[in-house]
Xylan 1,4-beta-xylosidase
Amino acid sequence: MEKIVKQKEPLVEHIYTADPSAHVFEGKIYIYPSHDLDEDIVSNDNGDQYMMEDYHILSLEDLNSPCVDNGEALHMKDVPWVSKQMWAPDAAFKNNTYYLYFPARDKDGIFRIGVASSSSPAGPFTAQKEPIPGSFSIDPAVLVDDDNRAYIYFGGLWGGQLEKWQTGSFSPDAEGPDVSAPAIGPRVAELSDDMLTFKEAPEEISIVDEEGNPILAGDEDRRYFEGPWMHKYNGNYYLSYSTGTTHTIVYAVGNNPKGPFVFKGKILTPVVGWTTHHSIVQYQDKWYLFYHDSSLSGGRDNKRCVKFTELKYNEDGTIQTIDPYK
Ligand code: FUB
């Protein structure tokens, strides 16, 4: 049954959804979420409970319309290199084409990032036969900048395997740095003009405090964990992300798409469920935060639901912290 979606309520209830990447395409709001399976799987630190197999793209004609599920847009059976776990995707528009970027484990169990394309923002999408060469880890987010150059941000700790790439190649037993060492940063690479490959080797992003000191690995209230998002506000680049173990969405600001970014504060306090994952989008003259929680399943980590709420800036460009339950 269709219902008008209210702020801080699940966008859809007929399937479990998570990791919403929202964009305004062709005047509508399109949401690119993960699709959680309705299965009871015991949670562990490797993320084995997140066994997603396909993507359904949601859309809102406007903020007073029912949310539409546009059906299956891509399934892992149609992506030859994928073995399992199609995690948090994002989408971008360039070259008159819509691109879907998605992480998944390859046949060796290593997370890679794939790309698929479509003439419609709702799909269906056709995937490239191989992952993006040189890609690794999870949670791609793409910014097409005002000069039409596109950047992909990605990376996630623990099940997302980012610790295992510190030397530049995959070390299956590698662990994170000492708590007193700089935290591992997310990665950024400019995309090639055809949006299908990296134009350059990915670089590690530096997130620093107001004094310019790197955020340390033991600073779990501020260090990067997963789920990067990049948006621009008043000409500045806002990198926002999940702190994982402390369950908040935070942000850092810079004047270059590759950073460095200065840590600023908290956008979203903890939600029901272990993971927190978001996107930020301008629609007409307001800004919105899309996020998820596990309220629809009564708190099951791997059965989440996508929601949205208005996001407000202060006059100095800082973002007002949102409590998802007030
Ligand atoms: O949905 C699977 C994983 O959980 C995502 O890739 C992470 O960001 C976390 O939300």
About this structure: The pocket of beta-L-arabinofuranose is lined by residues 18-19, 34, 50, 87-88, 138-139, 156, 226-227, 275, 277 (CB under 6 Å). Residues 6-311 form a domain with the Tachylectin-2; Chain A fold (CATH 2.115.10.20).
